[in-house]
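Q&A log
Question type: sequence-to-structure
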Amino acid sequence: MSGTARLDVIGVGLGRTGTASLKLALEQLGFGPCHHMLELFQRPGDAARWQARARGEAVGWDELLGGFRSTVDWPSVHFWRELVHDFPNAKIILTVRDPESWYDSISNTIFKALEQPLPQQDDAARGQRVMAKDIIVERAFDNRPLDKAHVLARYAAHNAAVQRSVPAGRLLTYDVSQGWEPLCDFLGVPVPATPFPSANRRDEFHHGPGRQRD
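Response status: OK
Response body:
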């Protein structure tokens, strides 16, 4: 996908807070396509570009998010401050969940997956894994994924920073278990008649391409 990045919605919740379900919900509501870590399986060269931006290199949003109307999850959440600033008309959604439940989930999915040996026969998967470990494990959690207290402190600090930095009228703090109503009210769209989507549960994470998702 290419083109100009024109984001209407920016998800700033960390991975394993319902980001995959929110992606599907936003696309169903007309705010798609929505960028998620999953997109990197279809855009294998992008992992290196996201990592380059994390190093401070001049990689623009059009190159990374061109053609997308919304974004959730890592790697984009790493750059949430820049995105909030650079797309001033976008609405911001902070997905949250119970901290203990979140830590249990991320420990048994993302952290566990990133501990595995790098795939040697799949350049795209290897590049994505290297990028994810850099941005998530090393940058977001200071390379201390097994330090529960530290990881939970970083989770709380991230959420607090978002709530402190984004004006209340522009921000929705949202648990996907709340379903359609608060999301649709915030976005100003009708509530669908269909059930709220549920995606990337833990039992799905380690099967197929989704093993890399967060």
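Response note: The first strand starts at residue 9 and ends at 11.
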